[in-house]
Design a protein that fits this description.
Low-confidence stretches: none
CATH class: Alpha Beta
CATH architecture: 3-Layer(aba) Sandwich
Distance between the termini: 41 Å
Order of helices and strands: EHEHEHEHEHEHHHE
Strand content: 5-15%
CATH superfamily: NAD(P)-binding Rossmann-like Domain
Structural class: alpha/beta
Helix content: 40-55%
Shape: globular
Largest sheet: 7 strands, parallel
Radius of gyration: 17 Å
Length: about 250
């Protein structure tokens, strides 16, 4: 098993990419600390336990420092340590810059970017004491390429990529690796929400599919396998990198 004897904190574990990562990590031997603001995270916990794995769900607002600290402490109390962090929780909201409300800007940055700083802040001391750790942050292809209508989302995802590189340099001497993944369009509840808010969702779906040279949306498991690689010893000489799992979007000229 690729994560045997590892303890993984997975945020956004109730659904989508976060749930896929939590289930895959557990299947590969990790004891999983599942965190999410949604009580649906209890279903993730149940699935892991029913499959014979170990999991603890803690309802967590990852943008709230006290909630994050409480979740990390619960993980240490239950499992003794946390040596893998998968920062997955994120939200999307569409708006052109000149129409964007400041409170929406702050909300996206708080949930998508500040949360990843907070989770890293509270797991890093334990990783330093162990002299090992792997952090995998979920960014987005929008942190690398421009898409109309998402200035705050793109800023948050670009910030994740920059923070990943900085943390990788700062903690390499502690044998802590920090990488990120930039997914393309993935079939998740978050993107279902975006589709529900537009006038012609079928046209948008067709446009999204057309953007990807492989001709389809990604599935959460596509990203989860990348996270597993970056969390495991198979990537022991990889840090500070942004892996695009995007169906080829970043390889094409628009």
């Amino acid at each position: 098993m690729r994560l045997e004897n590892r303890v993984a904190l997975v945020t956004g574990a109730a659904m989508g990419i976060g749930k896929a990562i939590a289930l895959l990590f557990a299947r590969e031997g990790a004891r999983v600390m599942a965190a999410d603001i949604s009580e649906q995270g209890r279903e993730t916990e149940r699935e892991i336990l029913d499959a014979g794995g170990q999991c603890l769900f803690v309802r967590t607002d990852v943008s709230n420092e006290r909630d994050v600290e409480t979740a990390v402490r619960a993980g240490f109390a239950q499992f003794g340590t946390i040596d893998v962090l998968a920062n997955v929780a994120g939200i999307a909201h569409e708006s052109r810059a000149h129409e964007l409300r400041l409170e929406d800007w702050h909300h996206i940055l708080d949930v998508n970017l500040t949360s990843m700083f907070l989770c890293a802040k509270y797991v890093l001391p334990g990783m330093i004491s162990l002299h090992r750790g792997a952090i995998v942050n979920i960014a987005s292809i929008q942190g690398l390429l421009g898409f109309p209508g998402y200035p705050h989302y793109a800023a948050s995802k670009g910030g994740i990529i920059a923070m990943t590189r900085q943390l990788s340099r700062e903690y390499a001497a502690d044998n802590i690796r920090v990488n990120c993944i930039a997914p393309g369009t993935v079939d998740t509840p978050m993107n279902h929400g975006v589709l529900s808010r537009v006038a012609d969702p079928e046209a948008l779906k067709a446009n999204w599919a057309k953007m990807h040279p492989l001709g389809r949306f990604g599935q959460p498991i596509d990203v989860a396998y990348g996270a597993l690689f970056l969390a495991s010893e198979e990537s022991s000489w990889i840090t500070g990198q942004c892996l695009a799992i995007d169906g080829g979007v970043s390889a094409r000229a628009f």
